[in-house]
Each structure stands twice: as structure tokens, then as C-alpha cells.
Amino acid sequence: MAVINVCNAIQELERSILSYHPGSDLSAYLLLVTKLEQALKFLASNCGLAIQWLEGILQFLEDNVVSNDFYSFKVNMCLSILQKLQGTEEQARLGRGILCAAFFKLEIEFKQLLAENCSPAAFPFFIGKQACIAPSPLPAAVMQKLQAIIGRLNGSNRIEKCVSAFVQVRSMNARRSLEALDLNYLEKSVTEFDDVQEIEGFINQWCNHMGSAVKHVYEVEYMLCNEVFEEIGSDIGMYCFAKIATQSGILSFLQFGARVTECKKDPVKLLKLLDMFECLENLRADFNRLFRGKNCAEIQKQTRDLIRKVVCGACEIFWEFPFQVEHEREVLLLQMEVFQG
């Protein structure tokens, strides 16, 4: 009788879940899903006990050579029914099962909440030298809903699609934020034959834009990743942040800087390399905090390579500078002799 009551309760919960939209009342929907999971577990557990009991009865009938096949038939029929019911929870988690459908609704709601509450970063205005930084990009109520969905799906090993949706939506938002800076120059081809003076303006922009991107785009994404996934207690937040940073273009900044170091050596290049070093040094603490861990390994590698190239490039020009001055002095003296002669 208890098994029948549980089956009736499960059917009622299934009807409610199929007709309910999580966006109308997420807490109520999550409660329905939890009740359904509990009911399915309870059913599987009780079916297991009943199956053991019936198997004992069937063994007793066989041991005592009961000739009435009617009893054996009834017991086997009940066993078959209970075994099917015991597999109800597993079937509910499969592709077309009710739990799978319920989780799918939660995944859709998660992505929709993110998309509806995304807006490009408003780069701060300045009062004197103090920047006015915008607060968290998501309202507290939305953050709570996202965390609730993540917690529920993680408990059922269904977190992958939410992680993928989060990276997709937030990467797109970060790219939209950076588009406001007009970063087309980052794709500019630079070779060892190019003169730094020709791209001096781009290098100045790079220094300013690098700081803006780190402090007002990636800082926000870092905080958001950690806040949304903090309840899970894993490095999923850092995994998402590394993906967002990479897909939105942080490597383009580093690669442009590396190409600048390959330009023709001259005094102007020395000054620009020193500007770049100052920019990177000012952002060092931010880089170490934001782009940490194994998930940001490629960003760390390219950052180290850029710093090494900037320092080595500046040193080479600095040590060659006296020889260039002497060469220029000799050329000037030669020109004066020709002029006087």
C-alpha cells in the first residue's frame, strides 16, 4: 500500500513539474524537483525491501515444492512490477525522463537569467585620480537565483551545461564591453622593420586600455565567477573566468605588446618600452590575483614572456645607446669636414 501511495504522489509531482515554469516562482519549482527526487529514492528503497521479501517467499515455495503454480505466478508477477518500479528513478534521469526534463528547464532558466541581466561595463569616470567603480553587475535577487540553480543541478551532477552557458554569455558581454574601447589596433601587424614612432599612439592607447580592461572588465568577471559558483566549493569559478578572459581577448593585448618589442631599435622605442613596463608593473598585483592557478596557465606564460621581452628590449637599447651616440658624433664630424672642405 505504501508503494502505491508513493507512486500516486510521484505522478502528481510529475504533472506539477511539467506544467510549472521555474521563472514564475523558482523556489517553488526547486521544492517540487526536490520532492520528486526524494519520492523516487523512497520508492526505489521500499521496492528493494519488498523485492527481498518476495524473493524469500518465492524461495520458500520452491524449497517446499508447493505444487500450486498460482502462488508462484502471483509472486513472480509482483516481483516483475516491483523491479520495474525500482528502476523508475534511473529512468527519470535519462534523456526523456521527468527529472531530465525538470533539470533542462532549470538550465534554460539559468541561461535566461544571465542573458536578461547582462550589460556592457560602464568604464568609470574619474574625480581627480580616484576612479568611481560600478558595483556588482547582477542584482542580489538574480545572484541568489543563479546560486540556487547551480546548487540544485550540482547535487544531481548536471552542472556542465550551466558552466557552458555562463562562459558563453559572460564572454560575449566582456567582448561587448571591450568593443567600446575600439581595440582594432591590437590586430595591427608589427615587424622588426617598423618604426615605433609610427605606432606610438597605439602604444599609448594600449597602456590605457590594458588598465581599463583588467580593472573594469576582468575584475568584474572574476568577482562574478567566484560569487556565482562559490557554493560548489571547487575551482569551477576560476575555470569559467579563465575561459571568459581568453575568449574575450586578453591574449590579444599581450600579443600586441609582444609584437611591439620586435620593432626597430631606437631611442623612442626605449621610451615606449619603459611606458609599457610601467603599465605592466602597475597591473602586476592585479594580474597575480586574477589570473592565478592552472586554468590561467597560458595567460601567465604569455604575460611572463611579454615582461621578459620588454625588459630585455629596453636593456639592449640602453646598452647600445653610447655606441649609437658615438656613431652619430662621428657621422656629424664627417659631415662638418665635408662641408668645410
From TrEMBL:
Record family assignment:
Belongs to the EXO70 family.
GO cellular component terms, semicolon-separated: exocyst
Q: Name one GO molecular function term.
A: phosphatidylinositol-4,5-bisphosphate binding
Gene3D superfamilies, sorted = Exocyst complex component Exo70 (1.20.1280.170)
Record function comment: Component of the exocyst complex.
SUPFAM superfamilies named among the record's database cross-references: Cullin repeat-like
Write the protein's name.
Exocyst subunit Exo70 family protein
Could you list this entry's UniProt keywords, alphabetically sorted. Answer: Exocytosis, Protein transport, Transport
GO BP, one example?
protein transport
All copies of domain Exocyst complex subunit Exo70 C-terminal, residue ranges = 205-329
